[in-house]
Amino acid sequence: MKDAVEFVSPCPNVVVIGAGFAGLRVCQGLAKVPVNVVLIDRHNYHLFQPLLYQVATAALSPADIAFPIRRIFRYQKNVSCVLGNVTQIDLSRKCLTIDNSQEIDFNYLIVASGATHSYFGKDDWLSNAPGLKTIDDALFIRKRILLAFEEAENELDESAQRAKLTFVVVGGGPTGVELAGALRQIAVKEIQKDYHHVDTSTARVMLVEANERVLKTFHPDLSARALRDLGKLGVEVRLNSSVTSVDDGGIKIGEERIDANNVFWAAGVQASPLGQSLGVELDRAGRVIVKPDLSVPGFPNVFIAGDLASATYGVNNLPVPGVAPAAMQMGAFISKVIAQEIRAVHLVENRPPFRYWDKGSMATIGKAKAVADINGWKFTGFVAWLMWSLIHLMFLVSFRAKVFVMLNWGYTYIFQSSGARLITGEFKPRIHKFRDVTPN
Amino acid sequence: MKDAVEFVSPCPNVVVIGAGFAGLRVCQGLAKVPVNVVLIDRHNYHLFQPLLYQVATAALSPADIAFPIRRIFRYQKNVSCVLGNVTQIDLSRKCLTIDNSQEIDFNYLIVASGATHSYFGKDDWLSNAPGLKTIDDALFIRKRILLAFEEAENELDESAQRAKLTFVVVGGGPTGVELAGALRQIAVKEIQKDYHHVDTSTARVMLVEANERVLKTFHPDLSARALRDLGKLGVEVRLNSSVTSVDDGGIKIGEERIDANNVFWAAGVQASPLGQSLGVELDRAGRVIVKPDLSVPGFPNVFIAGDLASATYGVNNLPVPGVAPAAMQMGAFISKVIAQEIRAVHLVENRPPFRYWDKGSMATIGKAKAVADINGWKFTGFVAWLMWSLIHLMFLVSFRAKVFVMLNWGYTYIFQSSGARLITGEFKPRIHKFRDVTPN
Description:
Chain A is α/β, with parallel strands linked by helices. Chain A has helices at residues 21-29, 52-56, 62-65, 69-72, 135-154, 158-164, 174-190, 220-233, 274-277, 324-342, 381-395, 399-415; strands at 13-17, 36-41, 45-47, 66-68, 79-83, 86-90, 95-98, 102-105, 108-111, 115-117, 166-170, 204-208, 235-238, 243-247, 250-253, 256-259, 262-265, 269-271, 288-289, 295-296, 299-304, 309-310, 312-313, 318-319, 360-364, 370-374, 377-380.
């Protein structure tokens, strides 16, 4: 604020909801613009979601992929961070409410509150098939996975033991593929020798996908390669398969019953409920249908960014995908629009449209394998995995994280032993029939 | 088991309760002895408790100081790890019960289940003055500390803000001194620049001690030095002061009321309730009074080790203190006694007495300061801190931990920014009067 040219007085308020990839970029883009920025988030950290499955599978610690928001804006004095839940937004009064008590006025509002899981109307599946969106989700899944192996070690009843060693991942997108791969990886490589009674490498990992291929947003060649790599790793992939029921003992695929103590959900996303509270038009996934400049129809000072936006780009009106690079590009675009308006470079009527630059997509499969599609170039195997690793390290927010995640990966790669195999929080092992651990 | 000489057949069962410093050493000492070892713990990890305060103050992640027990015994095939709570012990039937359901027989039993907090009969203080014994305790305290600063930033009501920025640590032993020092350290150095509205360096940290000096088990010169160093850091030390009440808004010291949203308990320890269930003689702190060979009177095959043991040593019958080195020495001693009996080297009647070798004690004060008493040599300041750091790194269980903790400390030392400032789990900020974050 101090060294910026003062075009407007008093300083306009730019309120940003959500400190994900989109929200962060909006704030960073306004560093030298004479505005008050208020960044509101439910958590005190920015989460690097692409690596969240590695927390769930005990490879990384939460602090490796989550960074205090305040630390990021330590030197950007025009940002105020607020920890809280936005409970109401009044677009016409230009005001919102946090935790039903704190009111904040805005001149510009950016809603970037992301997405959550979708159980396609079967919300009762949630408790038995947890999804992976937050650090707490990841720690819960980690606890479930580690507890399953602990229980299996001590379980004499064969069918109960089998159910404990059966993991079902629903959804064959990048998260599902990466989670399933990592699960087989730990069972076969990292923990097998630690269990003296049960052979953890017999763990069954099943990946259930409703479509005819995994990674359906990727090139078909890469889907085929991913399928092959998953097979080699020992992941059972069920294509064209729909889950018809989920309970605490397993799932049904069509009429087939699969006993599994652990089912994880990576199948669908649903936009944050905040979209609905705006009272504007939404698409089927609950996302806000935005104008080409990412603003809400009728409210040029309100923008939607990231997974909450239903946006299109280019002459063919292609949908902008719900991925991190798209969120970052939206955030940067919005900050630029606001900066130019405040500096009176152009008027609201002359805003440019948002253009998405698709840099490609990538997913890992277990250790040292990946598929990547970068600007139309296709990579697989070890080379793709190296690229995946480097690109993810590059985009980690802090230097500290880059160093520690790299060392963690290096260590795990060399010593085949992951770093964070802790069962924290409340739990209670459930055993049907105890193995005699003192066989005399 | 495979390469050990078989003196006894069938293999005797040695059951160890607790995977702390004592329990771990017992198991490790039995590596080449022809016994079945069963190691039972409530958690799946061994916790390096001396660094737990660093998890509570966001310097380290849980995985830096907690190690999967199974991983430690990966290559020691005569150890079976069981995750569970021992709910009953029957010394005469030589049998115990886990989680009210799994029965395990033993030939030898080692109870090393440690200690918990003691509120000196005021158990209702627990909810407002959490103690620091487990990873979950540390994560809870971390959440409370970070949330207090978040709330203070957004709080306009001055007295409410002051209470949020007041931290009381009850108990001037090593844990209390280290926790209080670390609290001032983060408030003054590590987070101050991250808060744009409140000056976190004004945070008041109070250390309350009932005795006339802190670190009362240390040499008086070191207590005096620690008091001075704490003062320089800005910790308010109240000696000869007893807490007379604790509620959710603060404490009373005698008749003086101190408003503080956060009170942490480091004042007293009480032996694990498992001691009581044995039906043998206990001391005032609930510890089992053991014979010179650490066995339970009347039950030569049952040993007590670590904080649960009320043991004495030497001609003057000095009490063995409740510290990690004592626990390790007890564990090693017991494993040796068992090994020799199984190899028929000596009989039960001829067991040697346990001898404690007091190697000294040390405690850090904030960053780069410590006091240490090693074999009668006294060290203070930076030198003592270096020794403290090296010795703690040496005793960390895994190579991975040594590397990562050292790097973490190095990074924090250079960049003055701690690594794990995450608020995880459920929480709800409580603000009395909101600061206007958009001041127009």
